[in-house]
Amino acid sequence: MTDRTAKLTIEDKDFELPIFSPTAGPDVVDIRKLYAQAGVFTYDPGFTSTASCDSTITFIDGDKGELLHRGYPIDQLAASSHYLEVCYLLLYGELPSAAQLEDFESRVTKHTMLHEQMVYFFRGFRRDAHPMAIMTGVVGAMSAFYHDSTDISDPWQREVASIRLVAKMPTIAAWAYKYSIGQPLVYPRNDMDYASNFLRMCFSVPAEEYEVNPILSRAMDRIFTLHADHEQNASTSTVRLASSSGANPFACIAAGIACLWGPAHGGANQACLEMLREIGTPDRIPEFIARAKDKSDPFRLMGFGHRVYKNFDPRAKVMKQSADEVLDLLGVEDNPILQVAKELEEAALADPYFTDKKLFPNVDFYSGIILEAMGFPTSMFTPIFAVSRTVGWISQWKEMIEDPAMKIGRPRQLYKGATMRDYVDIEKR
Ligand code: SDX
């Protein structure tokens, strides 16, 4: 509770609104009773100043460029942890002991297979279907196959659904890729780590043994870690809103995948690499910078800017280091796309338009360069983001479902339409 209040005066009436303080970040003004007391709504399209929930999972300080998962800085987790350990941290709140981690990894590994009949879903799509379309459909369809983990009131079913989703997403994403290139689907193995299994399911072919390159599996695991969760972003808010009606977890995660697909959100990694390819050479950078600044041109620098970060996205810093390392270790000398990215970043950060508006590279600016060097087509960039973010969506979903105060989300509006009027018969129109 709190004894601090904010005073709101509307015409001649004063209203007192409680103020709550977080463990980190801005205070919040509790407006839950405002409509009942004052008969007014607050107005915040895009939720630029709205705290939609309580949470203990991820904290972002946009001014400092800080990202914490359960208090641990993302750069430390990227350097010292690995994706499944970060999954445990996000899901259960603490870093696991060795025994807890071994048990968790074993449970995830043993759930990586899909119900064999789900193969037919993939075959129902055209070969040129975008993998995100396939993932949205197949993940939604999981609620038709895994009935024993759809009752959200049962803690055990919530736990099983969580493990199934974290475990099966790489298989679904890899199968969407294999299907799109007409190659046989590759089944997960129980003797491989999460990232290596995913690479093998994507790149191995029956004609030869697939050797996982440790550089690539480490880079893949780091990309998974960097995308795992990010507070109340658009897709996570979509999952929370869908879940607030009591919908089953598979349907809610499918809603999150659909939202992530947008180019303003998770689809930016694909759009960013396509933009870098379109720029092509450093001499064309000024032309694209000018277009990004031109209000009459809808073009924006993809991979730049962020609703919350008004400083460097800490994930972009790690991703940039990783891009240098991976390309160097792969012997991809002088990658022209990486060169364009670095010079574009330099040019933008020397331009007051971007620095005054606090537009810095975000997580999507360098990730596509690494993924392309690893052999992925651009259409697989956002599916990989979805694989990683599933644990974040599920952790936030669990947190909300387990909150006794949970209510169905139901925003209101500033109505600007027609006021009451009578129906007019067609003869009189
Ligand atoms: C992700 O929310 C999350 O946490 C998301 C995410 C996660 O992990 O879940 O971090 C993942 O989605 C990263 C963002 C990926 N998207 C892109 O890279 C697409 C390009 N970026 C923009 O579309 C934009 O920056 C957003 C969508 C990311 C943020 O938009 P906002 O906060 O709504 O900001 P805005 O559109 O109000 O822009 C503020 C100003 C505007 O100019 P003015 O009207 O004030 O004159 O900055 C300009 C914008 O025109 N601007 C850009 C720009 N981004 C904003 N101008 C050129 N290029 C850009 N990229």
From TrEMBL:
GO terms for molecular function: citrate synthase activity. InterPro entries: Citrate_synth-like_lrg_a-sub, Citrate_synth-like_sm_a-sub, Citrate_synthase, Citrate_synthase_AS, Citrate_synthase_bac-typ, Citrate_synthase_sf, Citrate_synthase_typ-I. It comes from the Bacteria. It catalyses: oxaloacetate + acetyl-CoA + H2O = citrate + CoA + H(+). One of its GO terms (biological process) is tricarboxylic acid cycle. GO terms for cellular component: cytoplasm. Pathway: Carbohydrate metabolism; tricarboxylic acid cycle; isocitrate from oxaloacetate: step 1/2. The keyword Metal-binding does not apply. Keywords: Transferase, Tricarboxylic acid cycle. The active site is at 306, 364. Belongs to the citrate synthase family. This is Citrate synthase. It comes from Poseidonocella pacifica. The lineage of its organism: Bacteria, Pseudomonadati, Pseudomonadota, Alphaproteobacteria, Rhodobacterales.
